[in-house]
Design a protein that fits this description.
mainly alpha; 11 helices
């Protein structure tokens, strides 16, 4: 960086992020759950009703556009496309040459990762929303944000979390992991799809936040699971496992350097030090 450039303002933000990370890692699992639940409750109380009021005040043409956007969050098309890629890649790999077979194997692994990510995140969202049983804003004449009927298993009481938000963010995160250069574009599209669920009034804003978090966590965990098995991603470089032989070798070399320093020979090897000290 040039000395004539303006001082960067990123460092204080980085220090703040580091402090938050250290504080978060120091919390126990129950404490983390309590923090997350408190934040989610704050969103329900403070933001759900204002966002719903914004949704009701939108121009009909904008709402029509958002309805078209929200259709992209249907997980059926992404599951069908990735399943077709898996089947096509498996069939074509048997007839292709070695170089093309490697490329087809990578394509099949990437499609498998996306398929599993969308399927598992969608299943978790569907299971959670029916167990929690939160009332949708579109199912009430006077919507209230804190109405729950757990284990009712009805569409009108399956609002939290948003399934469209979960799968759209999971797919965007997965595509961003496979194509890091276009990660921002994928996430912007995924966020718009997720936000459209609240802006058209079929979900509360907190439903979208919870679904997006669930989708991101699912895609992140599955990325590491696939990477450890060398599917779709490179295997992480394994650090050498310490063995008794390596440990004893380290102790021997350390002892040689300490004896060499004590004899005034600096960092010379022990064999050289002994050779010099022998009489002629």
């Amino acid at each position: 960086m040039s000395i004539w450039s303006k001082p960067s303002r990123i460092e204080p933000l980085t220090q703040a992020q580091h402090s938050l990370q250290v504080a978060w890692r120091g919390l126990s699992l129950p404490s983390r759950c309590a923090v997350i639940a408190s934040l989610m409750l704050a969103v329900m109380v403070l933001l759900d009703q204002p966002v719903l009021a914004l949704s009701n005040s939108l121009d009909p043409s904008i709402r029509t556009l958002l309805y078209n956007v929200t259709k992209l969050g249907n997980s059926a098309w992404s599951l069908l496309i990735t399943l077709a890629l898996i089947a096509t890649g498996a069939a074509a790999a048997r007839l292709a040459c070695k170089r093309k077979r490697v490329a087809l194997t990578r394509l099949r692994g990437a499609a498998l990762y996306l398929f599993v990510t969308v399927a598992i995140s969608g299943f978790l969202a569907s299971l959670s929303k029916h167990m929690i049983g939160r009332a949708r804003p579109s199912s009430m004449e006077a919507p209230e944000a804190l109405i729950f009927e757990p284990m009712l298993f009805r569409a009108a009481y399956s609002s939290f979390p948003s399934g469209h938000a979960t799968t759209s963010i999971a797919l965007a995160t997965g595509l961003g992991a496979l194509f890091p250069r276009h990660r921002t574009a994928f996430m912007v599209i995924g966020i718009w799809i997720a936000a459209s669920r609240a802006l058209i009034g079929v979900h509360w804003f907190s439903d979208v936040i919870a679904g997006a978090a669930l989708g991101w966590v699912t895609a992140w965990l599955l990325k590491h699971w696939f990477a450890r098995r060398g599917i779709a991603f490179r295997k992480p470089v394994a650090r050498p496992v310490p063995t008794p032989r390596r440990f004893l070798g380290t102790l021997r070399r350390t002892g040689q350097w300490m004896l060499a320093d004590a004899d005034g020979e600096g960092s010379a090897p022990l064999t050289e030090t002994r050779h010099r000290s022998d009489p002629a």
